[in-house]
Write a structure and sequence with these properties.
Oligomer: heterodimer
CATH class of chain A: Mainly Beta
Strand content of chain B: under 5%
CATH topology of chain A: Jelly Rolls
Shape of chain B: globular
Number of strands of chain A: 9
Radius of gyration of chain B: 18 Å
Number of domains of chain A: 1
Order of helices and strands of chain B: HHHHHHHHHH
Bound molecules: zinc ion
Largest sheet of chain A: 6 strands, antiparallel
Radius of gyration of chain A: 20 Å
Order of helices and strands of chain A: HHHHHEEEEEEEEEH
Number of helices of chain B: 10
Strand content of chain A: 15-25%
CATH superfamily of chain A: Jelly Rolls
Number of helices of chain A: 6
Distance between the termini of chain A: 31 Å
Chain lengths: ~220, ~220
């Protein structure tokens, strides 16, 4: 995907949680997708990786089995390098997202949720939920949850709330305490990846998505 | 000199900010001493060179050095992260197999050998211990035809050493928090308390390396 000028980034604590492997899978998809599009966050992420590297370097070694090296060499000989994955030259999504939804926007199986808004839920572990949202121009972005962490990454089009504008590559972070009313920009539909915490709220959220969209 | 003893020597030389020239009697280090003399008082990351030898010439001797040094650390890391000894052994071996296959993806201007191996071990931990998929950012790396600039490699190495020192100098309590974040399990709000390490310079260096990479890819 083309790099655009990104204005809304991931926070340090989220990047550190991702670097240390402490983020639920659904959030990790959004982080990996944003980092694929944003070298500013990639540099921060890799500096957090360096903390892990320093800790590993200082870790007390635990002796490996007597035949460990031989066994590794055998595995290398038995399984020569994996063939590179063939990818579309111009995928619609960054690769970490393509791994979940495929490379083409046309192949997404959308589920209508009212007001012309459609969603497609990713198969991830259920401690957080990631979904693609399709929002027609000028339509309100469904408000996902009012508790816990929320991430919304713009993949196509743009949305804006009272004060800010989010275009391709921008990621909005919210903790549910801020009440905002984002609306998809005019022009083309807005496609975003929205991730929410707390699986227990899923039913409630879904209910909210189908019913009182007007409320937002 | 046994491989173990060599390994110890190299460890020490890597941890000092301005060590004397690497042990002249070490046959392996001889090859790199000329580089050290001309460009910087700091030795280059010898492990990084080994990974590059694996990438470019499938050098088994270099791979064996990497194995002797890092496989036991990876095993220790996995045990600290909650794996039993048998699983840690199996995963440590798989981490080394991945190192062999992905060596061409290693960019020594953005990560030290230890950092890069940490990312492989972390992903293995998520996969094998947490039974969870790990979405990773799209790869960006130098093509096989490109040699990274040694100045950049050494600069990154120096920043990594400074960061390592800053971590060891943290107050005990904060250091434990950082270790728990990286080796154990923590919510992201707990992790926030562990930030505050001096990451500004290493971050700028990585950013610069990424800019060069993007420029070269155009
Ligand atoms: Zn960013």
């Amino acid at each position: 995907m083309a790099m655009s000028e990104i204005k809304h980034h991931l926070s340090d604590d989220i990047l550190m949680a991702y670097a240390s492997g402490n983020l639920p899978e659904a959030f990790s998809v959004a982080v990996a997708a944003h980092v694929s599009m944003c070298d500013t966050c990639r540099a921060t992420l890799e500096s957090f990786d360096a903390i892990g590297g320093s800790l590993l370097t200082e870790t007390a070694p635990v002796e490996t089995g007597a035949d460990a090296f031989q066994s590794v060499m055998d595995k290398i000989r038995q399984a020569p390098s994996e063939a590179p994955v063939l990818r579309n030259a111009t995928p619609d999504f960054p690769t970490p997202l393509s791994d979940y939804v495929g490379e083409s926007l046309d192949e997404i199986k959308w589920q209508p949720i009212g007001m012309g808004v459609k969603q497609s839920i990713l198969h991830t572990q259920d401690d957080a939920t990631a979904r693609l949202l399709y929002i027609p121009p000028g339509t309100a972005v469904p408000n996902h949850s009012h508790e816990g962490l929320e991430m919304t990454l713009v993949l196509q089009g743009a949305f804006a709330d009272e004060t800010e504008y989010f275009s391709v590559g921008d990621i909005e972070l919210a903790d549910g305490s801020t009440v905002h009313t984002p609306i998809a920009a005019d022009g083309q539909p807005c496609i975003c990846l929205a991730v929410t915490e707390a699986p227990l709220k899923f039913k409630k959220m879904f209910h909210r998505l189908v019913q009182p969209l007007m409320r937002i | 000199m046994s491989l173990d003893e060599q390994t110890k020597d190299r460890d020490t030389s890597l941890l000092e900010v301005e060590p004397a020239t690497p042990a002249a009697h070490d046959p392996y280090l001889k090859g790199v001493s000329d580089l050290t003399a001309t460009s910087s008082p700091t030795p280059p990351d010898v492990w990084a060179r080994d990974i590059q030898s694996v990438a470019t010439e499938k050098n088994v001797a270099a791979f064996e050095r990497l194995f002797s040094h890092f496989a036991p650390k990876v095993k220790g890391f996995l045990i600290k992260s909650g794996a039993d000894a048998a699983l840690a052994e199996e995963c440590a071996q798989e981490v080394m197999v991945t190192l062999w296959h992905k060596a061409h993806m290693f960019d020594p201007t953005r990560a030290s050998a230890g950092t890069w191996i940490f990312t492989i071990a972390r992903n293995k931990k998520i996969d094998a211990i947490r039974k969870q998929r790990r979405p990773e950012p799209e790869d960006v790396g130098w093509g096989p035809e490109h040699e990274p600039d040694q100045e950049d490699v050494i600069g990154l190495q120096q920043e990594t050493m400074k960061l390592g020192q800053a971590i060891s100098n943290l107050p005990e309590k904060q250091r434990n928090l950082v270790e728990r974040a990286y080796f154990g399990d923590m919510s992201h709000s707990e992790i926030a308390a562990a930030t505050g390490l001096p990451l500004g310079t290493i971050k700028s260096r990585i950013r610069l390396a990424l800019d060069r990479l993007r420029h070269a890819m155009k």
